[in-house]
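Re: that chain you flagged

S.,

Sorry for the slow reply, it's been a week of failed gels. I finally had a moment to sit down with the sequence you sent. For the record, here it is as I used it:
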Amino acid sequence: MVMSAAMIGALAVSVADREMDTAQILAISLLVYALSSFALWKVGIHPRPMSIKEGFAAVGVSWGIASIFGALPYVLSPTIRNPVDAFFESVSGFTTTGATVLSDPRVLDSGLLFWRSATQWLGGLAAVVVAVSVLPVLGIGGVQLQEVAATRATPNFLTGRFLKRILYLLVTYGIFTIVGILLLAAFGMTPFQAVNHAMTTISTGGFSTEPDSIGAFGPKIQWVVLALMFTAGISCSLHSRGLRKPRSYIRSAEFRLYVLIIGIASGLVFLGLDETGRRGITELRKGIFTVVSVFTTTGHTVSDSNSWKPVIQVLVFILLFGGAMAGSATGGIKTFRIGILAKSAGSELRRLVRPRGTFVMRFGKTKVEEHVVRSVQSFFLFYVLIFALGTVLLAFATAGQAGAVDLVGSSSAVASALGNVGPALGDLGSAASFAAVPAAGRLILSLVMLIGRVEIFPVLLLFTRELWHR
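Prediction finished late last night. Pasting the structure tokens below so you have them in one place:
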């Protein structure tokens, strides 16, 4: 139903620009979405709470189903007829990854460009709702530490409290999107560019209407986009509290760690970008922009990654595994998990010195229970294993074929897809598209994007007997 509403917006854009062929494509897609949602609504509603298993299954399949339906306008268009390309572009949109098979997005009509950006905005909104309201109930990867969760024994995703929480998230998400549109328009973007880039920035998606991404715009626009990316990387629930009580930001241990990581990484990239011995505002802007874009998994770029020094590429590769705050639309490991892993490692070192000691781990002022630490460690283990397996599969799938990906391109592409970042390094640098990757490789990356978007476990559980066994 929500996709149908977004499709109405895309259809309106096409009609306004007199793109009649594209308008027909979008109208057909709208009809399919509306009929499908009506049919699912009639047969799928049951007056009872959703169980834990059903919650996992719903999260695990929702982005895949949305991506399949979202590919329909691309398949019907003359630009992206290949179903694999269309599916890849749709997955990249709904997972807010930003990887693309288009070397120049301007080959799409305005209506399809709007739809492409809208998929990221919808995917980001869905990610925020799931991260704040659903994942804590399911107890995935320690997220329950960061968000107030309902009792796991009796989850009910249709209570008034749950719906009120979603309404707050929607309002907050919408306010920042509108502010983004106004700021971008005020500093020089056309209204169409402002709407598209606000949607893809607040959702930490990274799609652009320009082939050079944000590098096509001036310094003022780049500073505005940088600020929007930084804001989008903060938990939406923290924004809800912070807009009423600004001190809530400083009191958040995860927010402080988020700022610290960005500050240190920006300084290192700033030093590495300097090639002339003159450290100026341009290098500072590019350094901070690059770090914030990668760490918040947005993927907007202001320069070609292949032109960076090797030390910068190494730093960016490490940041591909980061991810901003839990409760935001970002992908990746997330800042609070990085903090807990660091605390856990420190506790283990102290335990070696004092084997009989009792240690209480805290993240900020919050006591971290042992089961949360185990959950975070399990998440990190699966994250690394999927990264390694995906890298090997992508290398094998493309070996000996036209468009074979080198080691740097293969590993960075999988890290980028798993973290929902978008641009990669090497052969798949920020100035390149993924169209050259063989079809098998694009399907592998599509699956990796979906796994990363739903925090790994819901997809993995789809392949276990326990989830389906009554």
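What I noticed first: The mean pLDDT is 87.

Talk soon,
D.
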